[in-house]
Write a structure and sequence with these properties.
Strand order of the largest sheet: 6-7-10-9-11
Number of helices: 15
Helix content: 40-55%
Largest sheet: 5 strands, antiparallel
Radius of gyration: 30 Å
Strand content: 15-25%
């Protein structure tokens, strides 16, 4: 808002206020008023209001869709109560849109037909992601209407999201939706990783027997593991923040803590891993790396950044040690992208593993439980799904053997009678 004042010179009053010149510098302009102070003050108010309106129109006409999206992230999304993961996801979508010609279009010229054409072109991404893009644009345009008042209506309200429906073939064999590995393939994977002494071995084993997500496995600490009670608590997830360029830990996908039970096989695997880490620590001595997190506050957001240090280097201030389950021989925590790369190599190295990735272990865990007759509600809680319907819809194919066994019970009715 421009600031102004009035002053008297001789018998006449003058009004003055600050404006921006062509270079963007603030300069003071003075104009003659009348011999009445009140009339001159009224002239000042009208002049400042007219100037502000002209400035607003000029700025609004120059702002692009990309500018508005960036402003929405900065002024609404970041200060909101959304999780850091959601902020990161929204920011990534905004970056994708800003890189397109649509993002460089002047905001006031963006019409519903432009947005409709854009969404109709999104045939290469999943329906879920399309709806995420729509949510971002709806929220951003709503923000542009109010409180920013950059435009007068939200064009997204006229856009029809024609997400691709799940097609099926009437005369083709049913295709399995997810990559599920057999016990023999799992053994081949373990043998390959053991031969390489790979730090990704333990994360793969944990995921196979618990169904944890990649970030959840990496974020698991020994404090979360109860070897006597054969259970672990999933509290956090590890991921790389591409915006801040740092590895961090944060809440799980659903921001909920859950408990996952496991059996004797994983118990022995974890006991052996714990003993091996003690041996590694003695072997590396002062060069063994400890892992730490540091709480960082940016605005109203809190981040937990990770780092690894041995005893030969001074420890940064305000760091808290954390004992991750999955480590390298020298003590460093295992990064998610390292595991992703290892799974990609395995898919090319081992016959029959085409399409294998770390999440395949979660699919396998779920498929094995459902095929063996586990209660869907129990499986849902182990996976951390928000709804049992999601579990059954996503893994409906996995229950095929269980359903086949179920209907064969009818064959026994005649014999029983």
């Amino acid at each position: 808002m421009a600031k102004g004042s009035v002053r008297k010179k001789g018998k006449k009053w003058y009004y003055r206020f600050y404006v921006e010149d062509e270079s963007g510098n603030r300069v003071q302009k003075e104009y003659p008023g009348t011999e009445s102070k009140s009339e001159t003050e009224a002239m000042l108010r009208r002049a400042m209001e007219d100037y502000e309106n002209k400035q607003f129109v000029a700025k609004t006409s120059n702002i692009t869709l990309g500018d508005m999206l960036t402003l929405w992230i900065k002024e609404e999304v970041i200060p909101s109560g959304r999780s850091n993961g959601t902020v990161l996801a929204y920011s990534h979508i905004v970056d994708c849109i800003n890189a397109l010609p649509l993002g460089k279009r002047k905001l006031q010229t963006v019409k519903a037909e432009h947005l409709q054409k854009y969404f109709d072109s999104l045939t290469h991404i999943s329906s879920k992601r399309i709806y995420s893009y729509a949510a971002v644009l709806r929220g951003a345009f709503k923000f542009a209407v109010f409180p920013k008042q950059l435009i007068t209506f939200n064009p997204m309200q006229y856009v029809n999201i024609r997400a691709k429906k799940n097609d099926y073939a009437l005369f083709e064999d049913e295709e399995q939706k997810f990559t599920v590995i057999s016990p023999e393939q799992y053994r081949n994977i373990i043998q390959s990783l053991q031969a390489k002494d790979s730090p990704t071995l333990l994360p793969v084993q944990i995921a196979y027997y618990t169904g944890l997500r990649l970030g959840e496995v990496c974020g698991l600490t020994w404090q979360d593991v109860d070897l006597d009670g054969q259970s672990l608590t999933v509290r956090r997830s590890m991921h790389y923040d591409v915006k801040r360029k740092v590895m961090e830990i944060g809440p799980t996908k659903r921001s909920k803590i859950r408990t996952v039970d496991f059996g004797d096989t994983l118990t022995e695997i974890l006991k052996d891993a714990k003993e091996q880490q003690k041996s590694d620590e003695k072997r590396y001595k002062e060069f063994y790396k400890r892992n730490y997190y540091r709480q960082v506050k940016e605005g109203n957001r809190t981040y937990y950044d990770l780092c690894s240090h041995d005893e030969t280097k001074p420890l940064p201030k305000d760091c808290t040690q954390v004992s991750f389950v999955c480590r390298h021989r020298d003590g460093r925590f295992v990064r998610p992208e390292l595991i992703d790369r290892a799974c990609n190599h395995l898919s090319k190295e081992i016959a029959g593993l085409d399409g294998f990735h770390f999440h395949s272990l979660r699919h396998t865990f779920t498929s094995n439980l459902l095929a063996k007759g586990a209660a869907p509600k129990d499986v849902q809680e182990l996976l951390g799904h928000s709804d049992v319907n999601l579990t059954m819809n996503v893994y409906a194919h996995a229950a095929k053997d269980s359903k086949r066994s179920c209907v064969k019970l009818l064959d026994t009715l005649e014999n029983d009678s």
